[in-house]
Fold this protein.
Amino acid sequence: MRSSIRFLLGREMRELANFPPTTTVLDYLRGTERRCGTKEGCAEGDCGACTVVVGELQDGTMRYRAVNSCIQFLGTLDGKQLITVEDLAGNGELHPVQEAIATSNGSQCGFCTPGFVMSLFSAWATGQQLTRVALDDTLSGNLCRCTGYGTIVDAAASLAGRDRNDRFAQDSAATVERLAGLADAQDVAIEHGGMRFFAPATTERLADLLLDHPDATILAGGTDVGLWVTKQHRNLPVVISVLGIEALRASVLADGVLAFGAGVSLNAAALALSRYVPELGLLMRRFASAQIRNIGTLCGNIANGSPIGDLPPALIALGAEIVLRKGDRQRVLALQDYFLAYQKQDREPGEFVEAVRVPLPPAGALFRVHKVSKRRDEDISAVCAAHYVEIEDGRVAAVRLAYGGMAATPKRATAAEQSLLGQLWAEQAIRRAQEAMTEDFAPISDMRASAAYRMTVATNLLWRSFLEMDGADDTQIPDEWCLAHA
Amino acid sequence: MPKVIEKTLAAETIKGGVHQRIIHDSAFKHVTGQAQYVDDLPEPRELLHVFIAQSQRAHARLVKLDVEAVRRAPGVATVLTAADVPGENDFGHAHCGDEPVFASDTVVYFGQPIFAVAADTVANAREAARLAVVEYEDLEPILTVRQAMERKSFLGEPMQLVQGDWEAALAAAPHRAKGSIEVGGQEHFYLEGQASLALLREDGDVYIHCATQDPSAVQHMVARVLGRDANAVTIEVRRMGGAFGGKETGATQFASIAALVAVRTRRPAKVRLDRDDDMVMTGKRHDFCFDYDVGFDTDGRILSIDIVLMQRAGYSHDQSRPVLQRTIYNCDNAYFLPSARLTGYACRTNTQSNTAFRGFGSPQGNLVIERVMDEIAYALGKEPFDVRMANLYGESERNVTPYDWVLKDNILPRIVDEALEVSDFAARRQAVVAFNRQSRIVKRGIALMPLKYPVGFSARFLNQAGALVHIYQDGSIHLNHGGTEMGQGLFIKVAQVVAEEFQVDVDRIKITATVTDKVPNTTATAASSGTDMNGAAAQIAARAIKTRLIDFAAEHYKVGEEQIVFEPNRVRVGNQLIPFDALVKQAYENLISLSAFGYYRNPDIAVDPVTMKGRAYHYCCYGTAVVEVAIDTLTGENRVQRVDIVHDVGKSLNPTIDMGQLEGGFVQGMGWVTSEELVWDDRGRLRTHAPSTYKIPVCSDRPKELNMRLVDWSRNRENTVYRSKAIGEPPFNLAISVFNALTDAVASVGNYRFCPDLDAPATPERILMACDALRRRLAAEG
């Protein structure tokens, strides 16, 4: 058991103990380190002005990810390298990313600029493509109100052919060695003013800790929990992070089922899902932003039961299951049964989501998923629809129509499903199912959409799925721009 | 910058003179994180952080406000309420008594500041604020424009501009069309929220680092709130992280609160709003309802128009009436209105007090006349483009605005021609129509929008500016002026003007923070006029020093003045070449003043306050945008596929900066007409108060193809600095073309027979609903 965290800030080692466990990385940087290059623009991980890069040792090499420092708790840096905009320039020279943005007129007011620099630096450092298609994705979590983005994209695209052997690449052997030296497989426990933060090293230890602290806040990527602190100003007396547990970070394919551990990031999950269920590639591409997907987890998106979580409808339609664990006891639920009511889930005190299992659709199964939102990228869906159909002899043999944004929980359109079962897979049946669907939902009007719009779109999307399952390719605005994962 | 004299004496041109393409002066500081904003300044010892507690009612009597428990909470240094304001409890620039720093007996919007807590940390201040006992007695709120119209809840008298015998012309017109359109507001969403750091100086004076576009006004308003003379308050602004109009009057309340805390506690105090607090408390772009009734001939030419403009002002005056005036003045956009009645109502509602925002009311005016063009086109079965051309202002006739200002510089016909050519509009229009005939779900739309954008402050007294230039003994130059830098590149442009005057490289010029004790009584950096006015003032200051240097050199070297020429980084005096720095040193040693104040004014703008007639502006910028979009008629989702812009900035002072403004302004305008939707609930609570719910354009929303051209042949016919024109706001209005193109795409659903009933912003929801309405109409009418 260690009662401090250790990490590299740029090239300097930091060891911190006795800090308030819900201190954000942003507040630490601006307050304690007086590194004011990193900005607060929204404190909810939606604008990217606070973007920093976190380096991590993975399979013996450095992996870099852009993250939103405003909602990242300091304790999660344990064993990692934190890189901020102040670290990039060295020996009186700008980093190529900085130079490109500056000389391409990529900054106006400059407030969002450090965040853009860091998002692009992460793409640079991870060897990502710097094509315009890829850059839409890389920059999906960075808002700029001045430039209209074109000059920033031009700047980044100008780097495409550059040798990426920068200071960080040159230092990487040393960095790997220093981080390897920090990996002691110890549990971490921080205490400050009655507040506690734990980062257990094993699943067993996590289960035990949760028995001791059944009401603890379970922290994975923190892209939701962070907001409880920065937006709702809630007091979280005990926080237990699952991110230090190697076993929970595995994605495993066995017997036609993809299983994701509680620590698997949305990006890691997206890679696996889009390989086996290509339809999910585009949904994952449009899920939040690059920064959020880098750190947010698939299980976390489900665990807190947001009614607007984009993944649950898709996973429900695929017939996914959720694995809950308390102490040594595991139980498995159909994912749809986990959501009880608005922000209420079937999870007992002391219990945690250990994994989600997604069965891959059998050959011949039809599956479409659609997300409709006010803005294409980095928005929460007004309606998310996932349609899964198996046809035998021209008739519907199995059907799951799952929706988000239509009820207080992700919900299946059971009346519409019933009307389709056994019917000939043809326009007439779809039209009847669309009508039946009005029995399934009574959506609300809110800032994202009106009830009437939601209902219309929900039924229209079923029509679209039908056309697309039938092979139509003219049902959507053709868009070669947003297929980064496909 | 090291001086290399040999090079200096040989250089052909200076680095950074006018018309050169150079990047923002702070670009390298931006990308390294070294550019300092208010919240980045080193925090002084004993600094207090302020949290502002807000009304939880849209309209109510404040029956009880007990903050005793707040005062006793951990870390709290002071709590301020309306009773603690030593001067006037009115921060309003309009000075109408309706903008209290803290509400006293009545709260008038959900989010209105009612008290402030200053503590050692923001968290402690926020936590303490929860301990207040606040009791309300609810009053009926007025939340919408239509409610305000019903209840005659107005700020001042209606404004009216009448041209010709509008009524007779309307009655006699062979064709008439009537309609309404709602146009939504817009959150500024400057990335840096409102911020003020107040420091106490001797005599109880206050020095405030403030993120504001209008330091002089903030200075005067803070002084009034403190009950002090203006000379006791100094405002400094190095840069802002975006402003867009939101940091003119918008900064004052928070600067006042920081000052009040500093004076009360004798400690430095910082107010920095987080995103939610900022969006909930501060005003936005005005939303409008428009009712129009237009009469036109068979060619689609407008004969007369009657427009009622209903503006949601919010709870107070702020700048709503000047904004409304500009909306009225810009209801013509690029079109000749031979007779018209334009009647504007500033509707007082129980919501945030709407304020300046890039375009200052003109985008809304432009948008309504663009809708009228479409309305006429569908009524006559004509192409929307043809109707626009039929109504376009002429160069020598049909060139009088409804306020009797004659357009003498109309270059729009030539610009439209260029836009038609570069965009291949005619062929693409045909292709779009053909595509729509065979496409069952996806529909495309294409539209052209000509723009006339008049520049200048209609309020005459605002057309003045000052600048202060020093040359130090080593030849380095200090530049200061009343304009503020919010990212638009004003500082570099003004520095280029000074560099050009002295013929020195621009990096010899230190660009310095705007401070009210250097240049007093400045006008807000607004109305796109920053460079026109501050550039001119700096030029005047530089010329004053230059004249002294010439006089000195003529006398010292015994040569005629005409033999003294400022060449790049040197001065030719007769047959001698003297490095600029050396001449400066000599001048200093010979008792020559190397500092000058430049004062610029433009007295030509004047309108009659009653009839609204006169010369409301200085000159016009012109531009044209051609936009193609695609919509999905199952969901209303949409994409901007291609944009071609041809635009006029006169002779550009800095094409790099101007192109940045053009693109950025356009995309910001796109957001306004597409995804940026403000939503209040029936209690008057703003539900879209953070980027999670309020959607400005993100990287992938930018037009898939964007071609921009600044015309190289235009010169400002007015005597502006180097015949340049303004750039800040006009590009924003060009984005209304996106709305026109979306309208066109929706119209295809009704086989182009009906004008779509589409309000702004054209969210996916509004687009789908407009499509469905056309489908129903088509079915009903066969």
Q: What stands out?
A: Residues 481-486 of chain A have pLDDT under 50 and may be disordered. The longest helix of chain A spans residues 451-469.
